[in-house]
Amino acid sequence: MNDALLSLEAIHVAYGKVEAVRGVNLALGEGQITTVIGANGAGKTTLLSAAAGLLPWSGRARYQGEDLSRMTVEDRVERGFCLVPEQRALFGDMPVLDNLLLGAFVRRRDKAYVKNSLESVFEQFPRLAERQAQLAQTLSGGERQMLAIGRALMSQPRLLLLDEPSLGLAPTIVRDVLKRVRGLRDQGVSILLVEQNARAALDVADYAYVMDTGEFVLEGKAADMASDPRVMATYLGGGVE
Amino acid sequence: MSLDIILILLIDGLSTGAIYLLAGLGFVLVFSVTRVIFIPSGDIAAFAALTLAAFQSRTVPGSIWLVAAMAALACLAECMTHLRNGTARRLPHAIFFYAVLPLIPCIVGLMIAKQDVPEALRIVTTMALILPMGVLIDRLTLRPLATSSTLILFIVAIAVHFLIAGIGLIVFGPEGVRTNPILDGVTTLPGGVVVPAQQILMMIVALLLSFVFYLFFGRSITGKALRATASNRVGARLMGIRPERAAATAYLIASGLAAIVGILIAPVTTMYYDSGFMIGLKASVGAIIGGMASYPITAIGSVFIGILESWASFLASDYKEIIIFSVVIPVLIWRSFAVHRDGDEEIEELA
């Protein structure tokens, strides 16, 4: 797919001699939610970390037509390519407000932009506005996830990589978080969503890949995947045995 | 013991503590951003004193050649890295920051060295000349190892200290120097205790710079970016904060603080090419009290070490060093208990 916002071809990622990702091909369309689902340990987080530049990888990868192999994590961020990692990576000993302001670090010189961005994030996550003076480490799990996403939104990204946003959250909060993810897509942000919670992910996604032991084993429209017997059997708890 | 002696020792201790405070803040800053215990900062302080002394005696300070050589090597290293990584578009940026900027004070220094210029110009030139040293040392020795363990970084920092001190002997020679006092004269406190103005200057500068530090880290986005890098390195990178730039900023500030330390103490202490080591080591005790993480506790710890030193010099001058460094052991024991009790991540690495 040449018109893809992000395209990965034959991507390999290894930890020493162990190959965690083996020859993965992925194309992410502009303005879409693409999800990668799979069991724990399938290599989803590794793939996402490598795509964001946090891990060394081999293969061909392009973002907005530009070669990713020579781009650092920070170069990607400057081009609107943001990762919200599984561990959230918040600045725990700093207040919520400072966490958000640092989210706009790459556009820090444009004061009006930072102010608008902050207002828009507070509008989407009113809870963060209430807690802006609180230290990030004192937030609840759901609030931390909102802060992590809100912080990424401060730079108004074009492509958002979300790693397990539902991890450790109560089911009602998962629904809320995923509803917001869909809201972001509607605002024009393209999203690559990695999830263990396959049902929730397929509900919001447009396109899906299924990953198993480092490889993509299935792909297709999310709606079709949700009714695919193979996916249902393995990932949606509808086993025949 | 009379009240006069207590007051004199207290003021002497506070002014010494002010010096350790400035150096200690630099230690905490560099460690929290880069995990390096920057032992060579003491040498940088000594080089600042020797540079100013050279200007005052109308000779060309050896630090000019040292900074010029380090800038040339660092610029070369930076350009080679960019060429290897295919980021040639950053070459002008690299040449500007690693060659042009450090060379400006070298040229100014050469121009004013033998002239009769105002003292303030000599001090400013000394500051500007010393400022890039930490950044250049980092680029040449520590940055290639930035992802190594804290232990390896510590060993390299010690090696760099001996290397720098050795170069100091070559470029400055073995003679000790004292500079002219920045503030002459004395102040008489109520009660008749006489305090040299230079000591008061040390305390005022430490107080002012602590306040500037507080504003910088609490208000400015650059200060917050440095704190973010210390708090969560991966998180900071994901915000587009480049760790090597955060490190360069930390080294720049630490060098500035070290330069101020050197300029402030040179009028009251004879400085040799290797005098910086002991100053750095004592200041590090204050930073250790602060767990290499907390600026306010480091400030209190540094002032405590200063006062302890002045009392130890008065009561048991032979044991001065033993007393000061003995403080480290109970502090570390107390810190390790504090870690177990609170699970405080900030100081885990040290304790």
Automatic annotation (TrEMBL), chain A:
Residues 6-238 form the ABC transporter domain. The keyword Nucleus does not apply. It comes from the Bacteria. Keywords: Amino-acid transport, ATP-binding, Nucleotide-binding, Transport. Pfam families: ABC_tran (PF00005). The keyword ATP-binding applies. GO terms for molecular function: ATP binding. SMART domains: AAA (SM00382). Belongs to the ABC transporter superfamily. This is ABC transporter ATP-binding protein. The lineage of its organism: Bacteria, Pseudomonadati, Pseudomonadota, Alphaproteobacteria, Hyphomicrobiales.
Automatic annotation (TrEMBL), chain B:
InterPro entries: ABC_transp_permease, BCAA_transport_permease. It is a multi-pass membrane protein. Its main location: membrane. It comes from the Bacteria. It is found in: Cell membrane. Keywords: Amino-acid transport, Cell membrane, Membrane, Transmembrane, Transmembrane helix, Transport. The chain crosses the membrane at residues 6-30, 62-83, 95-114, 120-138, 150-173, 193-217, 248-273, 285-307, 319-337. It holds the Pfam family BPD_transp_2. Belongs to the binding-protein-dependent transport system permease family. LivHM subfamily. This is Branched-chain amino acid ABC transporter permease. It comes from Rhizobium lemnae.
